[in-house]
Design goal:
Blueprint lengths: L4 E6 L5 H10 L3 E7 L3 H11 L3 E3 L1 H5 L6 E4 L6 H10 L3 E4 L7 H14 L3 E3 L7 H11 L6 E9 L19 H18 L2 E9 L4 E3 L9 E3 L5 E8 L4 E7 L10 E5 L2 E5 L9 E5 L6 E3 L12 H12 L7 H20 L3 E2 L22
Parallel strand pairs: 1-2, 1-4, 2-3, 4-5, 5-6, 7-12
Antiparallel strand pairs: 7-13, 8-11, 8-17, 9-10, 11-12, 13-14, 14-15, 15-16
Helix pairs in contact: 4-5, 5-9, 7-9
Length: about 375
Amino acid sequence: MVEKVKVGIIGCGNISGVYFKAGKIFENLEIVACADLIMDRAKAKAQEFGVPKACTVDELLSDPEIQIVINLTIPKAHAEVTMAALNAGKNIYAEKPMAITLEDGKSIINLAKAKGLLVGGAPDTFLGGGIQTCRKLIDDGWIGEPIGATAFMLCHGHESWHPDPEFYYQVGGGPMFDMGPYYLTALVTLMGPVKRVTGCTRITFPERIITSRQKYGKRIQVEVPTHVAGIMEFNSGAIGVILTSFDVWHSQLPRIEIYGSEGTLIVPDPNTFGGPVYIRRKDHGEWKEVPLTHGYSENSRGIGVSDMAYALISGRPHRASGHLTYHVLEIMHGFHIAAQQGKHYMLESTCERPAPLPLGLMYGTLDR
């Protein structure tokens, strides 16, 4: 019988539903409480998903049976809530990014180490069947030595559909901090850590007008770059290029491609868990779709929390770790710092490539 780890969720907004479902899917998770600044929202989620207790944040953090807290607050509150959870003796898994500033990210890492607690966070899409299949293909040598990569996330922002889009254009937002974690986490998983970056940024539209129903017509003053181009040199010597934008009306660019000495790999959208995965080796006349080698190809947010719970019990490293999330945070800041200073930014942090998932796992499990 697998030991269940008791979990509390702070933040019961749009994304929370899939995390509540994770408590039903993964064998080692039991969600026992939820909290939100709006109590009615916490009560509604508790009722919808059969969670025993809806409460205040302070009540959740003081609950002695809760071992892991999932932090689903807005980005500017991530660091404050995470630090409060650590100070309450809780292991913490936070939505992306782990913090807005590098200083807060360092404080989180240092406090978790001092207290002997686990810290980590989203995205955990790299644990899905699509990117895990790509990881196996690279590790097994199907494209030879990885020498380069490209990654593109281009759209015209979120004000046409999101009910509360303002924070996407405030400090801590922008296309790099919003979507960059998915792409960069995938690249670090597949190719290893980054040692230096450079970048260029701009704001194309200084004012945005909300056209989604709830706040139709409201004007947003843009505070952060909305078109960000970055170049990365990985520790391995491979070179990567990333472009994220909220300024582009239309694009046909791919999501991620990995270039190797023996071929090219097309990686699926890193904001999803599935495929398709395509490969074309140097001696192949056409692209071949590769069947997924791993499960969890549907929306499986919460898989990173389950992995943390296994690590908590067994003592093994967890994959969506604080060192990974902080390294990604520093890469994103590095692009912006390099653009401001007009020179390369050398990364101070590093991390291990997270271990690949085993083959043949039963649904709802991560460890054999």
